[in-house]
Known about the structure:
Layout: E1 3-8, H1 12-23, E2 28-34, H2 37-46, E3 51-55, H3 63-67, E4 75-80, H4 86-91, E5 96-99, H5 104-130, E6 132-137, E7 140-145, E8 149-155, E9 158-163, E10 170-172, H6 176-182, E11 188-192, E12 195-198, E13 202-206, E14 209-212, E15 215-218, H7 224-233
Amino acid sequence: MILSCAIIDDEPLAAELLASYVSKTPGLRLAGVYESAVTAMRELRERPVDLLFLDIQMPELSGLEFATLLPKDTRIIFTTAFDRYAIDGYKVDAADYLLKPVSYDRFAASVNKVIEWFETNERRKTAARDRFVYVKSEYKLIRLDFDDILYIEGLKDYVKIYFEAPRKPVLSLVNMKRVEDCLPSPQFMRVHRSFIVNMAKVSMVDRGRIVVGDVFIPVSESYKNQVQEYLDSHSL
């Protein structure tokens, strides 16, 4: 996967350093370097990039202000000499925050985080379109059609995927987060650290527990609100 990226920074040396980092980082293609958000605005609106390295403190239009004008699919890594902006950066859903002077190790770690985000997003789109995924189990690849899944249970480094009888559960060496990222929401909902439920298979909700078939699945406090929102949106 190759991501197009751009740099906006009113400090020439800082912009030059980031450009040199981009040039030696696999998976990145530099589309442009701009000295201000104002000069970049029109071009990036017409030809959006995947990733933007954006200085926060700039004249005319700050990086935080410019971030609100970008397409939602553009990931932002803020760069600044002032760490007091970190919280504000995350308020606009920044992928990461780099404090100047930026080291290459820190730069590469941020880029890897963004690449993983795009790869996960691509897997999610593909799976949602095709309505199935393959998982490894006992040296085999097993197809899982989304509509056949009842729920998924996390067991340390494994997950156990349950189906309606007579099909037996499938055990796979994969973590819950990766499974969750590939399943379409809100059909599949994380209701507990150890459980993901196909909400289309829920027959009843009883005293904070979700009933799927004859199994009672607990809803933990940290997921209670999002489960309730889903139930409210599907209630008479």
